[in-house]
Amino acid sequence: MSIEAKLVVLGTQGVGKTSLVARYVKNTFDPASASTIGASFLAKKVVVDDCQVRLQIWDTAGQERYRSISKLYYRSANCGILVYDVTSEESFLAMHSWLVELKKNIPSPIILHIVGTKLDLVLADPSKRQVPFERCVEYAADQLGDGGGWGVCASEISAKDDVGVDEVFQVIARKLVERREWEEEGVGEGAGVVEAGRAEEGAGKGCC
Ligand SMILES: Nc1nc2c(ncn2[C@@H]2O[C@H](COP(=O)(O)OP(=O)(O)OP(=O)(O)O)[C@@H](O)[C@H]2O)c(=O)[nH]1
Ligand SMILES: [Mg+2]
Questions:
Q1: pLDDT of 202
Q2: Average pLDDT by consecutive 10-residue portion of the chain (208 residues)?
Q3: Which of 122, 2, 115, 14 lies closest to 64 in space, CA to CA?
């Protein structure tokens, strides 16, 4: 089996969307990453068991003035990553506004992964943390854990230190495959799975 899926990456300016995608696709990190204009596209194949998943990854611009353009990308997406920065509560609140917008504008629930970035900064200095991982997990359960079809997951990553990045995309790809199997079997249309793990500081990642 092979699957093509469109993945959209959303979140406010500077949270690390481009860095997350660059680490995953090119295994690079730019400490002076330039702000994205409009959106950029990268593709990568992921193998899940005997299934090939080709992810078309749309990295959107977080600047407010590009918000209407981002809509073009998420409306046809099969899956998405909502990104915030663990050192910025403001970015967490901004992520919520993306989710509200998604819920309003997309025709049916998609697989969503909520990602807190810049974990390396709080591992180096815990006082920098503004969003506890528990808050993110509770948020995911409250907002998306109603069995409404959002296959949601949450984790914390560092694009700088390459922690937890591959896992995000692997989990999404696996959920895409599972969802396809359910649909083919006619079992689980709309069956949402809420699975969120705890980030162990030091272990550096928390995921499903
Ligand atoms: N320490 C640290 N810095 C990071 C990490 N990820 C991104 N950054 C830095 O955060 C800044 C913004 O990163 P980008 O990836 O460009 O952010 P973005 O979300 O794509 O921003 P827009 O394109 O403007 O929406 C850059 O200086 C990155 O180097 C990380 O995991 N750790
Ligand atoms: Mg960017």
A1: 43
A2: 94 98 98 95 94 96 92 92 98 95 90 96 98 94 78 93 97 92 61 33 48
A3: 14
Tokens of 31: 């400490």
The rounded Å distance from CA 33 to ligand 1 centre is 6
Task: State the Cα–Cα distance between residues 181 and 176, nearest whole angstrom.
Answer: 9
Rounded CA gap, 145 and 148, in Å? Answer: 7
Q: Is the CB of residue 21 below 6 angstroms from any atom belonging to ligand 1?
A: no
Which residue type, as a one-letter code, is found at position 24? Y
201 pocket-lining for ligand 1 (C-beta < 6 Å):
no
Query: What sign for the dihedral angle of Cα 193, 198, 199, 205?
Result: negative
Q: What element of type H or E holds 42? A: strand 39-48
Distance (Å, whole) CA 157 – CA 177: 23
Predicted local confidence at residue 107, as pLDDT:
86
Helix (H, G, I), strand (E, B) or coil at 124: helix
pTM: 0.90
Residue 185 identity? E
On whether the CB atoms of residues 55 and 5 are closer than 8 A, the answer is yes
Q: How far is the CA of 58 from the centre of ligand 2 (A)?
A: 10
**What's the pLDDT at 147?**
66
Structural domains in the chain plus CATH codes: 2-207 (3.40.50.300)
